[in-house]
Amino acid sequence: MLRKTLIAVAILAGAAQPLLAAETASDPKADFKAFRDYFTNRFPKVALDDFVNGPYSMDEGLRKQWKAIDEFPPYDFVVDKGKQMFATPFKNGKTYGDCFANKGIGVRQDYPKFDAKTGQVITLDVALNQCREANGEKPFDYSKDDMAALTAYMAFTSRGKPMNIAIPNDPRALAAYTKGKEYFYTRRGQLNFSCASCHVQNPGNHIRTEVLAPALGIMNAMPIYRSTWGGMGTVSRRLQSCNSQVGGVPLPGESEEYRDVEYYLSYMANGLPISGPGTRP
Amino acid sequence: MRTRTMIRLAVILSAFGFAGTAFAASADDFKAAYAKAEAAEKGAAAVKNRWTATEATLKKAKAAADAGKFDDAVTLAQHAEALANASTAQAKEQEKLWPDAVVR
Q1: Hey, are the CB atoms on A185 and B87 less than 8 Å from each other?
Q2: Which of A176, A249, B13, B97: disulfide with B50, CB 3.0–4.6 Å?
């Protein structure tokens, strides 16, 4: 009798597995629609393409300040530096352009990409360092300075182009996307905040003096010049900063979790125009 | 009656600091408490959910021990251990809870 009961429990537990798995399994297309509907229904007055402007799409006063600042954009010098770096050959005579489609011009909207060879998500920042290393150069730090300059220039050449992130028919790609989604919705740090706590549940609201940006299109403005930083920062720098703000120890730049969450958020922004490099308070 | 007398004696001893003296922490006490805190923080690192407060409290505990303040050092190490355990518990809990927050 006991044996029969145990077998029955085991069968029931086995049958329950697919149900549990289904709860966390991802359907990117369904996620995309739900995400898009959430923001457009919550902010019906905000034009879809305007979400990429982050807090400026949420607050009229802030928007006026931004328009004034953008008459002389603080990232201009960095874009110029990035352009020069991009065109300067490596010691072996090759350039960054040799590592990318269309010589690297107007391709930012296609990143991050899933790399079938490694089974990993490759962001633009990682692709740039891979390019450097393949050509005998040392990789750059992932948070600011040279990396921010290069990505700022590449984003500038893609301005207005719609985000175009593909999730190929590969279970590893879907797993990376799902991990990114998990990272985005997972609470962490002593303050017990997730990315979504601020950027899904509270966009437009103030946290201290800052207006929180919507998650929709948040990657389209990267990299960004932040007044708080007094300089440019990459996606990694922004994520590290978010981690610290909620009392969590940040992960290394371009760690798998950061690349996956960028993959997830960029897919959510498909079709929205690249607006980077951006300016933020 | 005897119990009451004992309690009174304990209260008087505490008031004069005798109880505190009796339980003063040593360097070994600190080492043991710090090792436990570090092990707990390793657990938090394994689930990639360390808290800045834990790291800061561990540093403070070490500084207190270096200054010979072992009572403070032990208290801080125990606090760090509790923070590390809380961060690990948060990560474990979130493994199950995060899907509830997904926009649908």
Answers
A1: no
A2: A249
| Cβ contact A24:B99 at 8 Å | yes
What does the pLDDT profile of chain A (281 residues) look like in tens digits?
Answer: 444 544 444 444 444 443 334 445 689 999 999 999 999 999 999 999 999 999 999 999 999 999 999 999 999 999 999 999 999 999 999 999 999 999 999 999 999 999 999 999 999 999 999 999 999 999 999 998 999 999 999 999 999 999 999 999 999 999 999 999 999 999 999 999 999 999 999 999 999 889 999 999 999 999 999 999 999 999 999 999 999 999 999 999 999 999 999 999 999 999 999 999 999 99
Is-contact A266 A163, C-beta < 8 A?
yes
Instruction: Please tell me if residue A209 touches chain B, with a CB cutoff of 8 Å.
Output: no
* Cβ separation B103–A38 shorter than 8 A: yes
B17 is a domain residue: no
- CA-CA distance, A259 to A165, in Å (whole number)? 13
Task: State the complex-level ipTM.
Answer: 0.85
Query: Measured on CA atoms in the order A12, A14, A18, A19, is the torsion positive or negative?
Result: positive
For residue B55, the chain A residues in CB contact (below 8 A) are 249
Judge whether B2 lies within some domain: no
pTM across the whole model: 0.88
Identify which of B50, B55, B101 has the shortest CB distance to residue A185: B101
CATH of region A76-156, choose from 2.60.40.1180, 3.30.200.20, 1.10.230.10, 1.10.760.10: 1.10.760.10
Contact across the interface for B99 and A24, Cβ inside 8 Å: yes
